[in-house]
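BUG: 3D viewer hangs when loading the predicted structure for this chain

Environment: internal workstation, default settings.
Expected: structure renders.
Actual: progress bar stalls at 90%.

Input used:
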Amino acid sequence: MTRRQLLTVVVAVVMAPVLHAETWPEWRGPLGTGVSSEIGLPTEWSRDQNVAWKAPLGGLGVSSPIVWGERVFVTYQIGAGALRPGNHPTLVQGRDPVAAGEHPLGGKRAAGPDAKIAFAVASFGRTDGKRLWEYRLDAEGALPPVHEKRNLASSSPVTDGEQVYAWFNNGQLAALDMNGKPAWTRHLGREYAAFNLDWGASSSPALYRDRLILVCFHNAASYLLALDKRTGKDLWRIEREKGLKSYSTPLVVEGPQGPEVVVNTSEGVDAYDPATGKLLWRFAEANRFPIPMPVYQDGVLYLTRGYRSSPYLALRVGGRGDVSKTHVVWRVDTGGPYVSSLVQYQGLLYMANEGGIVMCIDAKSGERVWQERMNGIFTASPVAADGKIYLLSETGETVVLRAGRRPQVLARNDLGEQLIASPAISGGLLFIRGDQHLFAIRGAGK
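Structure tokens produced before the viewer hung:
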């Protein structure tokens, strides 16, 4: 049994009398796969139909909501920061004009950054959307510019049910108890090196046993860091070569020779020992902008590498050293998403890109089962549950597909707000974060 599976079992046993719901403690769910075991989930909704509640957010961000018990947590930035030079309201640097309906984060952005910026973590009631608390901390030091569809609240929080860990993309980090009281804070951008990744940092923290694992692969410095989750003190810090980059979130898996921290990087796919930070193995393959996070099933990692028309592949875990020639199960040279991660569900892989193309791939062989244009802008990562695949589009629509070997759209549901963050699932509800609101969507008749 893997560490994530054990966590899910423990959560189910301990919390079942009061919850009767699966937790969603990180941005890709209880097992880090984007898959939920819940049933009876919503298929159709609109701005005024099957919305259990709608809560206003106090700021902007693209971090995904997480859920533990009766609480939903989300982070945001209060105040507008600087955009990276070269951004334009209708152009993204190095790309063709954006698709119709695509807009900067929050709509029209201010001409210049606000004088004062703060970061926030907020907790909402899972069933009624009531805001329970909000913790704020002032942004400190020089703030890096970001892509127009992001800000410094791009990393999703993570929780172990005792504390919530929120990381902001200038390096500020806060651990809060479940009532919003700070246990400790740090500012890695000041302590070690500026967070100055090209389009702005976006990696989310990962929890493994007693430690919080952070990928800090940036232009100024590249290092992997493990902190004691109770105190925030360093357990180990591994320097990597300057210029090694990653926008991706680490994934901890149980390999055949023990646990591994897997990271999608600009030089390949790396695996580290979570106890020491030692580099265990590497699949070597250069890529300019490694964004997607791997998913793991039965000893195999499935991932896209990021950047335009990304390669996608299946890779066995385990081993030592360079595994480029020995651990590839299958690999396809092109066609994967730039930003969003994929989801593996019932033996099939689903992926969607910012051009509106959705593909279904056989997980064992890598062969394409089907490909369809769905007329969306998919930067959020898909989630799967209850025989359905949920694809959130920047246009405000969620496309709901029937899982399977034939493409079938069950519904297209418009909430009227740009959707960039990935959704969460808990207690029969689908939690969706828009530019202005956090939505809880229920099934019909609930």
